[in-house]
Design a protein that fits this description.
Layout (H helix, E strand, L loop, with lengths): L3 E4 L5 E5 L4 E6 L27 E2 L21 E7 L5 E8 L2 H6 L4 E10 L2 E10 L5 E7 L2 E3 L7 E3 L6 E3 L10 E3 L12 E5 L6 E4 L4 E7 L3 E6 L1 H7 L11 E15 L4 E10 L1
Length: 276
């Protein structure tokens, strides 16, 4: 898998690839890898990468008629820039436009652009969706970010205690999920976790065992927290034994209410991550 690299003037490093316009690696200047990427992942036509930051568009998960998580995460994007930005940040950009293959699945004209920026202890991932057609389009989606953790049992997610959520784990998934009121407690891991939090405002914090990540989003109204747990983790062919313990997904998402983009208009959403 060919990678595009970019280095910030302070030593932060990004690596991504054209398969899915996929961010594979984010290293802070101390050399620590902040994302999880499965070494067993073998990207191919129709096969997405396990780890990093998959782009889910124009559908989140299986909540609709399209392939799970849409179709852009296994398409070949064009790398439009790679290097050090004028402000010293590492910068990679990618673009993908509608073609005959995408229109066969989803009859919309669009252009997606992805910008990846990193410097110091901060990463910003921005997805832009241009409606290049003559009719409105609507979509759901996510930046399906896999954050590396050193010890899943010690990992904690805080900042969502006051938000309602829908639980899609285990048997709950069969009925379309179960709605819960805010539970007032940080989220811990061990068994499968698959939650969609709605109307998220403010920062989410993930304690990773190697520092705490502060995660904020603009343009994405929802947040998804996911870890497959032992049973589903063992069933994933592109994941090493026990590797489900090495990551937590905290996703900037659009799930409950699709975004509508008028003809000729632009939507933009960003996930920002800072090591604190």
């Amino acid at each position: 898998m060919e990678r595009n690299h970019a280095r910030a003037s302070d030593g932060a490093v990004l690596a991504a690839c054209c398969h899915g316009g996929h961010l594979l690696s984010w290293q802070t200047p101390d050399g620590r890898e902040r994302l999880f990427l499965s070494p067993l992942s073998q990207p191919a036509p129709g096969v997405a990468i396990r780890g990093g930051v998959p782009v889910c568009f124009p559908q989140f998960s299986g909540f609709g008629p399209l392939p799970k998580h849409g179709f852009v995460r296994d398409r070949i994007w064009q790398c439009t820039a790679a290097g050090t930005a004028a402000d010293g940040r590492a910068r990679l950009t990618y673009a993908l436009e509608a073609d005959a293959a995408t229109r066969a699945l989803w009859p919309q004209a669009f252009r997606c652009e992805l910008e990846l920026l990193a410097a110091g202890d901060t990463l910003a991932v921005t997805l832009a969706v241009h409606n290049t057609g003559e009719a409105p389009l609507s979509f759901t989606g996510a930046l399906h970010t896999y954050f590396a953790v050193t010890d899943l049992e010690a990992a904690r997610v805080s900042g969502l205690e006051a938000h309602p959520y829908r639980d899609h784990a285990g048997a709950a998934a069969a009925g379309g999920g179960i709605d819960h009121s805010p539970d007032g407690a940080p989220l811990c891991f061990g068994a499968e976790v698959d939650r969609v939090y709605t109307g998220v405002r403010g920062a989410i914090r993930l304690a990773t065992g190697a520092g705490t990540l502060q995660i904020e989003a603009d343009g994405f109204p929802d947040a998804v927290i996911w870890n497959p747990g032992p049973e589903k983790g063992a069933a994933l062919a592109d994941l090493e034994a026990g590797a489900w313990r090495r990551y937590v997904c905290v996703e900037a998402a659009i799930v409950r209410t699709p975004v509508s983009v008028a003809a000729g208009a632009l939507w933009r959403g960003t996930q920002r991550v800072r090591v604190i």
